[in-house]
Amino acid sequence: MLLLGCGITHEKKGSTEKVDVATPVGNLNVSTSKDARPAQVGLAAYPAAHAVPDEGQSSAQAHIAMPFLNLKIVSMKFESDDPPAKVLDFYRHELSHYGDVKQERGGNSTSDIQGFSWRSTPDQIALSVEAGDAEHLVAVQPKGSGSKFALVYIRTSEPDESQ
Beta partners for 39? Predict the structure, then answer.
């Protein structure tokens, strides 16, 4: 589709769906998939976890390229029969490869990553580490006797930097 100097493409291939929007002032690329791969957020997969689809998809990526800024966000959801403490220990070790790991308990404060803010649920624990223009986040909360958790990667960069 072409509209006032804009181009929009939509592609669905297997379990992946992509939308690309090109405008004179920047581009937006969004993709969703049923096949969540933790390597996309720079972390190992938790051994006893399975991807959890949200509206049919378990992972999403967005990349915005503007003349003054690039932004990339990758997120995915998982569940495990293991308790939150075990999942947190695993990802605390994984995140430590990127630097000092911060831990926040949800509900009492607003979390902020790369300028994005949210208020978590009281039973949620978030681990995060900042590495330059990138940040990795793992948010874990109980689900029955197990856990549900999200892995998130956010990167901001100057337009001339590679993604």
Answer: none
